[in-house]
TrEMBL record:
<keyword id="KW-1133">Transmembrane helix</keyword>
<feature type="transmembrane region" description="Helical">
    <location>
        <begin position="225"/>
        <end position="247"/>
    </location>
</feature>
<dbReference type="InterPro" id="IPR007136">
    <property type="entry name" value="DUF347"/>
</dbReference>
<keyword id="KW-0472">Membrane</keyword>
<feature type="transmembrane region" description="Helical">
    <location>
        <begin position="142"/>
        <end position="161"/>
    </location>
</feature>
<feature type="transmembrane region" description="Helical">
    <location>
        <begin position="196"/>
        <end position="213"/>
    </location>
</feature>
<feature type="transmembrane region" description="Helical">
    <location>
        <begin position="167"/>
        <end position="189"/>
    </location>
</feature>
<keyword id="KW-0812">Transmembrane</keyword>
<feature type="transmembrane region" description="Helical">
    <location>
        <begin position="99"/>
        <end position="122"/>
    </location>
</feature>
<feature type="transmembrane region" description="Helical">
    <location>
        <begin position="73"/>
        <end position="93"/>
    </location>
</feature>
<feature type="transmembrane region" description="Helical">
    <location>
        <begin position="47"/>
        <end position="66"/>
    </location>
</feature>
<protein>
    <recommendedName>
        <fullName>Membrane-anchored protein</fullName>
    </recommendedName>
</protein>
<feature type="transmembrane region" description="Helical">
    <location>
        <begin position="21"/>
        <end position="41"/>
    </location>
</feature>
<dbReference type="Pfam" id="PF03988">
    <property type="entry name" value="DUF347"/>
</dbReference>
Amino acid sequence: MTQTAHRNFSGLLNKVPEVTIYFWIIKVMATTVGETAADLLATRLGLGLTITSYVMTAVFVAALIFQIRARSYVAPLYWVTVVLISIVGTLISDNLVDGMGISLVTTSVVFGVFLAAIFALWYRIEGTLSIHTIFTTRREMFYWAAILFTFALGTSAGDLMAEKLELGYGLAAIVFGSMIGVIALLYYVFKIDAIFSFWIAYILTRPLGASTGDYLAKPVIAGGLGWGTVTTSLFFLVIILALVAYLTITKSDRLEAVPEG
């Protein structure tokens, strides 16, 4: 960010990180952890969907309260909240599909409608969907509500592509990765709207991460690599911790001031 841009800012503190390559790497890995950790807690540890959902929702709500009460962006707090909301979003989808027998097509459509409604209400009230102006509690609540449904939608859409349409987890990950590549091309080459590009890419990273997590963790007989949920979750958590530690020290993703208005 240029010095000129800083001089034009009001000094209000933004609550989310600048969008850098680190942002996207951690985001995809957080979605992968959300997928594998939910399976680990519910299945491997035998807690079941219901108990896992209650526990992780409570932990997420606690983290969200600390996040909202923070005066500015704090890398560890923000990314812990993202990982937790990823797990909760996965559990919402799993409860509806596995627990209540609702089809993946239905959950994908319903989550998509809810997400569109949140964006519409957010834009109508605030006049922008930019993540560079998350400096009020109301805007931050819209932000986290949107993220919750991107995770829930991404879980259902990823499972729909991999399982219902029988593409397999590896191919599904390639498809979603290619879609993100197209969005990047449209943004960098054809200069399509930055906010639109960001949210489409953000939505697509969820099924990309979910499909990647399933591909790595699922047994070979189920179309995966057989890493297991423990190894997969720990592998990505270690990388996330290293990157968040780097960002905490360097503060290279901080956008402390936001434009007035």
